[in-house]
Amino acid sequence: MNSVSNYTIEQISKATGTKIESLMYWKEAREKEMFDGFQKEAQEKLWKAEDYIAVANILISVYAIKMSRKSREHTKDLIQRMISNMNPAREYIERVGIQKAYEYAKNDFGIELEFDSIDINKEFGFGDFGDKTK
Known about the structure:
The chain has one domain. It is built from 6 helices and no strands. It starts with 8 loop residues before the first helix and ends in an 11-residue tail after the last helix. By secondary structure, it is an all-alpha fold. It has helices at 9-16, 20-68, 75-84, 86-96, 98-109, 120-123. Helix 2 packs across helix 4 (86-96) and helix 4 (86-96) crosses helix 5.
């Protein structure tokens, strides 16, 4: 028994008694359905990644402030220290990972952020960097 996946459109038309134009229309409709499905899935992943990045940015700011605060002195001094700690805070978030950083921030500062936790590296094919701790 031959596999129909190896048949040409003409062979399928002849075997089924269906006009080539009808088969072409059916094939294009199935391809569009598949494309639309893939596009929707990709858009949902993109939205999830954007939410994830937004949470990461909030956490970077939280840790930058934490690393900057020595006392309740002038706001200007706090902002300058916060800006100088942005890279160390980002590096900290990268080192421990978003999920752990969120858990630590939730415990340390009592913050609640709504987001779907995802393994962004796995989701987007960047590899698994595993769980990293403080």
